Amino acid sequence: MSIEIRDLSKHYGTTRAIDGVSLILDDSVQVLALIGPSGGGKSTFLRLLGGLEIPTSGSIRIDDTELPKSEKGIMDFRRRNGFLFQSFNLFPHLTALENIVLPLVEVHRRTRDAAIARAHEVVERFGMSAHLGKMPAELSGGQQQRIALARAMAHEPALLLLDEPTSALDPEMKAEVLEVIAELCQAGQRIVLSTHEMGFARGTADEVVFLANGRLVESGTGGSLFGNPQTEVVRSFLGKVMKW
Amino acid sequence: MVSTLVSIVLAATFCFVIWIVATHDYQWKAIAPYWGNLFSGWWMTLLISVASLIFSVVIGIMLTAGQLSGHRIPSFLCRVFVEIIRGTPLLTQILIGYYLIADAIGWDSRFGVGLVILSCFSGAYLSEIFRGGIESIPKSQWLSARAIGFTGSQTYRYVVIPQAIRRVLPGSAGQFANLIKDSSLLFVISVHEFTMQAREANANTYATFEAYLPLIVGYFLLTFPVSLLSRHLENRFRYEH
After folding, report:
1. Which of B158, B239, B241 is opposite residue A102, by nearest beta carbon?
2. What is the 3-state secondary structure (H, E, C) of chain A?
3. Taking the domains of chain A in order of start, what are their residue ranges?
4. Which of B148, B150, B165 to mutate against chain A (most A CBs within 10 Å)?
5. Residue A126 pLDDT grade (very low, low, confident, very high; cuts 50, 70, 90)
6. Would you state the CATH architecture of domain A3-81+159-243?
7. What would the pLDDT profile of B142-183 be if each residue is shown by its tens digit?
8. How many Å lie between the alpha carbon of A78 and the closest alpha carbon of chain B?
9. What is the pTM of this model?
10. Domains along chain B with CATH numbers
């Protein structure tokens, strides 16, 4: 994906969640991973990239189009993307099927029949066909995330944004969700993901960005950033998280 | 252990009360001429309760929408209205509403004025219940709805309100029961509702218990169906298993 970010900032009151980040990526990058300490700005950066938040200052160009800065304008851009958060993505009062069908019908203007057919198709890919009729509360955490991922994927998003998608899951469920995400990466889906799964980031991402205190500390390919970190901050972070 | 004890105490108290009430020496003949009035009073209470129940829901929704609108002035005005209505006695609202305000605009329908005041009173309480229900929907649900690309009204329609309905049902049912009983205060502007008829029967016959006991049955016949309906709806909107 071609991304051009210039001097991007997002402030909440006096908190500088993102503080002057610039980044240029070319078309060869299909999967972008954001790593770094909690509270370092990964989530905010991802939300800015997906059009869920509007920057305080600076600009983002994706595929040579500058993201609009008004809530109204950014809505169309946002709708072309798909989001998955840590947890509680699904609407608890709707079945798994309805969770996927509702946005297809109401946001993407598909007919109900087409939406249902599409839901079955995506869910089959994620091995969740047997669970379509269930309520979210009847699904395990990993199953909920896979349904939520199916919902984020159902309209064939230009960009899939995953915000620590496995952080709230136990190891076994983590594995089953990461497997699905890895498969999407292989299938050519453009993905931006923030994660604490260093092995996964290294294995799947074409580019890894390290964020701390709202600033971009270092970026590079998985191999170079993990294999040969240039800054002390990244070295010490990786040293700590890889130790155990 | 505790539940057994509570059951025993409740059952014993209940039996004792029933026994005391049932074994009293009643003079039913004394109020026999007033049965017709009592029934017409009950009917009036039913009418005014049902009508103000409907209006109070409408007013409650409007007050909630005003408070959550995000526009400062409507939000402030709705807040002020709710606080004044909730913070002052219904009795004084009825008196001022009828003898001062309705009089000033030349409106002389006791039923109409009573209906409006009762609806505003109950609507103010309902709006707080509705607001609480909407604000209890977790932030993650709003975020999910935004991420999907829902507009504000789609978020309310498909995500927030369906979940909030279930949460506001018990509180609303309680408020409806209160509304039915509060309608008895309309006697101060001589609306001939149920309680007023009982007061008159008592004043004319001095058969106090005989005049007032029908109120217990009559009001319960109105409030119990509300309670049943609420339970039924709670089950219908249940989504957790």
Report:
1. B158
2. CCEEEEEEEEEECCEEEEEEEEEEECCCCCEEEEECCCCCCHHHHHHHHHCCCCCCEEEEEECCEECCCCHHHHHHHHHHCEEECCCCCCCCCCCHHHHHHHHHHHCCCCCHHHHHHHHHHHHHHCCCHHHCCCCHHHCCHHHHHHHHHHHHHCCCCCCEEEECCCCCCCHHHHHHHHHHHHHHHHCCCCEEEECCCHHHHHHHCCEEEEEECCEEEEEECHHHHHHCCCCHHHHHHHHHHHHC
3. 3-81+159-243, 90-156
4. B148
5. confident
6. 3-Layer(aba) Sandwich (3.40)
7. 999 999 999 999 999 999 999 999 899 999 999 999 999 999
8. 6
9. 0.85
10. 34-236 (1.10.3720.10)
